[in-house]
Amino acid sequence: MNLEEVLNFRRSVRVYDPEKPLDTARVKHCIELATLAPNSSNMQLWEFHHITDKALMEKVSYACLNQSATSTASEIVVFVTRRDLFRQRARYVLAFERENIKKYSPAARQQKRIEDRELYYGKIMPFLYGRFFGLLGLLRVIITTCIGLFRTITRQVSENDVRVVVHKSCALAAQTFMIAMANEGYDTCPIEGFDSRVLKKALQLPRGAEINMVVSCGIRKGNDGIWGERCRVPFETVYVKN
Fold first, then answer.
1. Residue 80: is it exposed, middle or buried by C-beta count within 10 angstroms (0-12/13-18/19+)?
2. Among residues 94, 96, 103, 217, which is most buried (max CB within 10 A)?
3. Are strands 210-218 and 75-81 parallel, antiparallel or unpaired?
4. What are the chain's domains?
5. Mapped to the 3 state alphabet, what secondary structure does the chain carry?
6. Is the entire prediction scored with pTM above 0.70?
């Protein structure tokens, strides 16, 4: 399928055929492709929990209110944000960037570029993602508001703003995964109706992790899998040309 065919094929499937299992290795490869999704500052503050164990799938489905989209699924992937890993991920990206610059940048510009990355990932990212009872977020807002009096600057820097950014990046990965699955001829359904406390307990997630999205996977069961034609508001109501 070409891209347009893939996007038209992808639907939010509510009922899967239990007699048509998935190739787990192919699903895992689709998750690998999801890591190629764009994300803010390349911080990659996400985890992908690939659920194939039947007992755990029942617990996940229970946390998802036992919707048919999870109770009939062959496999489930839970997309998790890990804002709490910002220091670890920043160090990893910085180490990668140092070597990347040495390999591909002109010798005369390497030192300056490395210093820029060290400032960005060594100081700015830890300050932006740092949390201390909301006080660091408030400090960031005050600083950006003052600087914004004289120049343009990113203003979404409160702790809640940063949380939104992390979830947006993770959602991009989830969408990339669903497109990759559609390309394999596999079906998915993104689910946001779940008990996050129960689900975090089932997956044994740490306090700093948050559930971004649950994506059930399988092969649609005939016409029962989807609810008729896809509904979209007229394109003219959402398209604005400036």
1. buried
2. 217
3. antiparallel
4. 1-242 (3.40.109.10)
5. CCHHHHHHHCCECCCECCCCCCCHHHHHHHHHHHCCCCCHHHCCCEEEEEECCHHHHHHHHHHCCCCHHHHCCCEEEEEEECHHHHHHHHHHHHHHHHHHHHHHCCHHHHHHHHHHHHHHHHHHHHHHHCCCCCHHHHHHHHHHHHHCCCCCCCCCCCHHHHHHHHHHHHHHHHHHHHHHHHHCCCEEEEECCCCHHHHHHHHCCCCCCEEEEEEEEECECHHHCCCCCCCCCCHHHCCCCC
6. yes
Residue 148: how many CA atoms within 13 Å on its side-chain side?
11
Q: Is the Cα dihedral 135, 211, 181, 90 positive or negative?
A: positive
> How many angstroms separate the CA atoms of 95 and 97, rounded?
5
Amino acid type, 242: N
pLDDT in tens, 98-134: 999 999 999 999 999 999 999 999 999 999 999 988 8
Angle at 93 between CA 89 and CA 32, to 5 degrees: 75
**What pLDDT, in 10s, does the model give residues 50-60?**
999 999 999 99
